[in-house]
Input
Amino acid sequence: MDTKTLEPILAEHPFFKDLKPEYLSILVGCASNVRFEANEMIFQHGGPADKFYIIRHGEVAIEVHDPRRHVIRIQTLRDGDVFGWSWMFAGRSSHFDARALILTRAIAMDGECLRGKFNNDHSLGYEMMLRFTPVIIRRLEAASMQLLDIYK
Amino acid sequence: MTANPMLPEPFRIRKVQKESYDTFTLELEPLNRPDPFLFKAGQFNMLYVFGVGEVPISISGDPHHPETLIHTTRAVGTVTKAMRQLKTGDVMGIRGPYGTSWPVDRAEGYDVVIVAGGIGLAPLRPSLYHVLEHRDKYGKVVLLYGTRSPDDILFRKELERWRSRFDLEIYVTVDYANPGWRGNVGVVTNLIPKAPFDPLHTMAMICGPEVMMRFTAIELLKRGVEAPNIYLTMERNMKCGIGFCGHCQLGESFICKDGPVFALPEMQERLNQWEV
Output
């Protein structure tokens, strides 16, 4: 795959907004274009958590399997959203399932590759943490609200 | 309102509409009143189930059609559970309308963002009726509605009808769903960052559980909506409805008389206080 073509795509994505061009050049080496058909599983509970995804176009559901209630959908994500953050630490596995609901085009960022780049350049790692932490905080806040079951 | 504000007026139930497994709508018509029951969007009535008790319930009907009084509520307590047992033709007592209203006049010239959580869509529906009745006076109109699950969606047919309009943006989300649901899943606050409105020229109206309103206000402020342009409606244990008994006192305000609709700066501090 010609990864050079991904650099402008990354640059346009809100997650990488205003990121220094030299950082983008480094990160693009860990990026790959991916495409998922409707209903295709992107990752599954228990599987390796070695990537994070940036949705370009499409719709993705985050789901949990509960033996009593079958599949419970806990979040849907659309264009511009980011998902998968267990990659930050080596050897982690996914806690949820991710399924494409419609044809979805995304950029997959390889976790091992990224961790290597961050070890070599801590400033880049810090910059990426600054971008990831708000995503994590937002998800945790949302999860807390869901747990509270406030509409019951 | 009657000369004696503590005296309920008899209203006959014209129709009972089941909205979900625990939510229902009553359409009422006055027995004796010669005049229409005029009210403003956001106001509430005290509803009296004879022999059981009285509860404050927001009006969920259209202020431009005061000939029918409409209330939507959940069966959660003694009175509302008794209310759910009432049938067409039964009579109940009404006192009101009471309280402050949504800032539909102040919102003219602004984008209007209505954020509803769960049963909170009912008190906001009159404001939406008003805005749609006077559609030319407003900028973009956006309804963000979050509820527990697809089965809990209130006014589903009306939402579907409104979605077919070109001058109204509606986004519905549920906290969780089975895979059969094709819509959004996630909390209502997640809808705010991408919702199509100009934050600097937006009037926002919020109704839902207090936790939801608190987080919604935070998201709206983050988006750039000014605090005085954010309104919310508070709920407390109201008894008299006219600021006499003090049951609904919250800090220095009586929710029944000074509210239930408040601008955010009036309530922002209290939303974060414990045991108030």
Remarks:
- Chain A has one domain: 3-148.
